[in-house]
Amino acid sequence: MNLTHYAIKTRIYLAKRLREIDNDRGMSTIEYAMGSLAAAALAAVLYMVINGNGVVDAIEGIITDALSNTPG
Question: If you ran DSSP here, which 8-state letter would residue 20 be given?
């Protein structure tokens, strides 16, 4: 067997391995868990921000200013 034969066999082996490694058809269980945890954490932060006094006061101020200003 010559060097070309080994090079071809090596190339075929590497191509098969790359196809196996590249076969990512979906998320694994840990990826689902981490994604769900991140989504829940973001939802909790947004809930705290929206229900905080600063946001409510800012929205009330904008509405009050809009309703109390006269055009012209």
Answer: H
- With contact defined as beta carbons under 8 Å apart, do 27 and 35 qualify? yes
Please tell me the pTM assigned to this model.
0.43
Structure tokens at 12: 């075929």
Other beta carbons within 10 Å of 15: 10
Residue 2 CA to its chain's centroid (Å): 50
Band (51; pLDDT cuts 50, 70, 90): confident
Pick from 52, 34, 33, 32: which is nearest to 44 by CA? 52
Residue found under tokens 């090596």 = 10
